[in-house]
Amino acid sequence: MSDPSDVKDILQDLLTMGLIRIRALAWEGNADRCAIEADHIHNLPRLLAHEEADGLVYYWEAERPSYIRQSEPTHLAMWEPLWRRLQAHIGAVATAQASR
Q: Which one, of 96, 98, 11, lies nearest residue 50 by Cα?
């Protein structure tokens, strides 16, 4: 991946935010939304542990868009700053993969 320490920081922030959202939604009794939130972040711990470029691209191209499709704009606003930070790394990964 591009800058592994920055990517790890972003992934940790994504996980933290997701877990806080799941906890809050659980207290509200919103199991359906908890499942959507959990599905969005469930592969991020593996990316933290293994720094897989392919996994990062999969999150960006599959899991993130799936979450967006299932979410209201109010759900997305909190993720946007982290996604913008991650987007720069996605470009670097795509460039590296294209040069293989």
A: 11
- Cα–Cα dist 38/50, whole Å: 20
pLDDT confidence of residue 100: 60
Angle between helices 4-28 and 80-98 (to 10 degrees): 140
For 80, counting Cβ atoms within 10 Å of its Cβ (0-12 exposed, 13-18 middle, 19+ buried), the class is exposed
Tell me the average confidence (pLDDT) per consecutive run of 10 residues in the chain, 100 residues long: 79 97 97 97 93 90 97 94 93 65
Q: Residue written as tokens 């996994």?
A: 55
Tokens standing for residue 96: 């590296």
pTM: 0.88
C-alpha to C-alpha distance for 52 and 60, rounded to whole angstroms: 13
Cβ distance 47 to 63 under 8 Å? Answer: no
